[in-house]
Amino acid sequence: MSIISVEHIKKSFNDGIEVLKDISFEVKEGQVLGIIGPSGSGKSTMLRCIAQLETVDEGSIKICGENLVTDGLYASKPLLRSIGLNLGFVFQNFNLFPHYSVLKNIVDPQVSVLGVSKNEAADTARKLLKRMGLEGKENSYPCELSGGQQQRVSIARSLALKPKVLLFDEPTSALDPELTGEILSVIRDLAKEKMTMIVVTHEMAFARDISDNLIFMDGGVIVEQGNPKDLIANPKTERMAEFLKRFNEK
């Protein structure tokens, strides 16, 4: 079953520049879709359209069997909210509230979005923090944590809302190289648990190893998609070969 279906979506910003040009793909339940490509290729915009952080101009998006947008027409606000509860979004720059403790950053969304009690939310938060290797950090503030720790809190916050799909927008791009591994390890563990995910990343080896399907985007279009190992080992287009060459030279 396809848990996310994207059909022929297009997106332009106010300056008239078309950022997404006829994008289509599907993600089945329990799969990981990796998305790679140069900066400015439309990767993050496409992810934000799925998460309702941007709107599409044309095309259709279906999430967990519900129509988010059909031929450019959006569903009702109550349905949009219901659909949004199926998704968790992990940002590049963590997006934690700096004046909230780690525990409060995870508890408050559960109370406001899911309507659970503070005690139940706190219990869930502590279990997730332990799972993320952050036991004992409940009363710390984001500024007291490393970037890797902050991103793990961000992942715990998303998981606390019990989404069916996690969307990662370059989750390691704001981290020092030595902290990248701990976030990739968390995502690998989620993949082993068959968490449905879309991961936008610049980590080529990680994308190859974790993804069930891989998309290479450039200039607002999908240039290649398919088996990750095949795509990276034997790109069919000159553009993807050029992109991978630059990566391999780093």
What oligomeric assembly is this protein in?
single chain
* Rough outline: globular
Low-confidence stretches: none
How far do the termini sit from each other?
A: 39 Å
Bin the strand percentage. Answer: 25-35%
What's the number of helices?
9
**Total strand count, please?**
11
Structural class by SSE content: alpha/beta
Instruction: Specify Rg, calculated over alpha carbons.
Output: 18 Å
Largest sheet: 6 strands, mixed
Order of helices and strands: EEEHEEEHEHHHEHEHEEHH
Q: Which range best describes the helical content: under 10%, 10-25%, 25-40%, 40-55%, 55-70% or over 70%?
A: 25-40%
The mean pLDDT is 93
* Widest β-sheet, arrangement of strands: 7-8-9-3-10-11
Give descriptors for this structure.
single chain; 250 residues; alpha/beta; six-stranded mixed β-sheet; five-stranded antiparallel β-sheet; 9 helices
What can you see in these coordinates?
With 250 residues, the protein is an alpha/beta fold. Helix content is 39%, strand content 26%. The protein contains 9 helices and 11 strands. The strands form 2 sheets. Strands 7-8-9-3-10-11 form a 6-stranded mixed β-sheet, sandwiched between helices. It has a 5-stranded antiparallel β-sheet with strand order 2-1-4-5-6. Helix 3 packs across helix 4 and helix 4 crosses helix 5. The longest helix is centred in the C-terminal third of the chain and has 16 residues. The protein is globular, with a radius of gyration of 18 Å. The termini are far apart.
